[in-house]
């Protein structure tokens, strides 16, 4: 089976799982249930698409299949923003704040941080992307440590509010955020469309891309901005999901066996939808909410990450 047929198969499987999630055991009050499930599915699709899309781009420009965009420190910055708001203004401010304002504030601060980081680091032309990753890792560790410090000082009841923000949740999606998140992802996708033709060449490495006529630094900086915005939108929408991108993108590489990024991006988006919709179906119908989807994904993703490390270690 070729990679085109496999991509079509993934699309069909995604639609089947979405239909099963929407209509399985819908009950007599189907109008109310269907509306709630539709909003949840839209949130899952947007989150899965943003994370899978950004991880494919990020791994291509870094030429590394065990990295995820979370190494830039954006997940840690998200937790720091939530902690600072509770620490300074109290938990009631966080719960009473308008959802759209909170969403735009969080996304804006994360994108601003990424922009300042790029502006400072790429001011000199001799800095490369690996220096950016190192600085992102250091900032991420600093944000986590500072968040932990403030969480120790706040009231235990307010700490519970912060703790709820530390894990991704598809059960408390604010439906009024979906339109805003959809518009942001659509605008970023339109901007990305003019750069998609470079990804197959960038996957060959910096030297080969430069020799083939690609303005490497210009393209990579724009793609990093795309990655930062997508991760910021997904994290602000449901919370941090560390291992989802790593898991779905590596499974896509193994399943499709192709270097064409058009198919890799769509394939990884479909696999992310299958993982999230199928996982949420299992959490709700089999485990009856005794656990959360993010816990299952992080557990499986963590095990798969260790497998990748051991596999790469043997290849050396």
Automatic annotation (TrEMBL):
One of its GO terms (cellular component) is plasma membrane. GO terms for molecular function: transmembrane transporter activity. The keyword DNA-binding does not apply. Pfam families: FecCD. SUPFAM superfamilies: ABC transporter involved in vitamin B12 uptake, BtuC. It is a multi-pass membrane protein. The keyword Signal does not apply. One of its GO terms (biological process) is siderophore-iron import into cell. The chain crosses the membrane at residues 6-27, 39-61, 67-89, 101-122, 128-154, 175-196, 223-251, 263-283, 289-310. Keywords: Cell membrane, Ion transport, Iron, Iron transport, Membrane, Transmembrane, Transmembrane helix, Transport. InterPro entries: ABC_BtuC-like (IPR037294), ABC_transptr_permease_BtuC (IPR000522). Belongs to the binding-protein-dependent transport system permease family. FecCD subfamily. This is Iron ABC transporter permease. The lineage of its organism: Bacteria, Bacillati, Bacillota, Bacilli, Bacillales.
């Amino acid at each position: 089976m070729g990679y085109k047929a496999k991509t079509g198969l993934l699309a069909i499987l995604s639609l089947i799982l979405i239909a099963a999630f929407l209509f399985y055991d819908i009950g007599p009050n189907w109008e109310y249930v269907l509306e709630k499930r539709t909003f949840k599915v839209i949130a899952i699709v947007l989150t899965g698409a943003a994370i899978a899309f950004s991880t494919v781009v990020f791994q291509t420009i870094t030429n590394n299949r065990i990295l995820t965009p979370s190494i830039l420190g954006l997940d840690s910055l998200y937790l720091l923003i939530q902690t600072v708001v509770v620490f300074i203004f109290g938990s009631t401010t966080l719960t009473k704040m308008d959802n759209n304002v909170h969403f735009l504030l969080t996304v804006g601060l994360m994108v601003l941080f990424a922009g300042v980081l790029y502006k400072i680091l790429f001011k000199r032309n001799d800095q490369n992307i690996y220096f950016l990753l190192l600085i992102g890792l250091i900032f991420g560790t600093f944000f986590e440590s500072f968040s932990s410090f403030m969480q120790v000082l706040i009231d235990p009841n307010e700490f519970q509010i912060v703790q709820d923000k530390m894990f991704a949740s598809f059960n408390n999606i604010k439906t009024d955020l979906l339109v805003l998140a959809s518009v942001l992802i659509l605008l970023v996708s339109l901007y990305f469309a003019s750069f998609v033709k470079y990804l197959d060449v960038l996957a060959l490495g910096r030297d080969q891309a430069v020799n083939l006529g690609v303005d490497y630094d210009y393209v990579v900086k724009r793609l990093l901005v795309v990655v930062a915005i997508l991760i910021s939108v997904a994290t602000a929408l449901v919370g941090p999901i560390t291992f989802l991108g790593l898991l779905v993108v590596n499974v896509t590489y193994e399943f499709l066996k192709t270097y064409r990024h058009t198919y890799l991006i769509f394939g990884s988006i479909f696999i992310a939808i299958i993982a999230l919709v199928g996982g949420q179906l299992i959490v709700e119908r089999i485990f009856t909410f005794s656990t959360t989807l993010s816990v299952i994904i992080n557990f499986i993703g963590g095990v798969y990450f260790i497998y990748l490390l051991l596999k790469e270690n043997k290849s050396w």
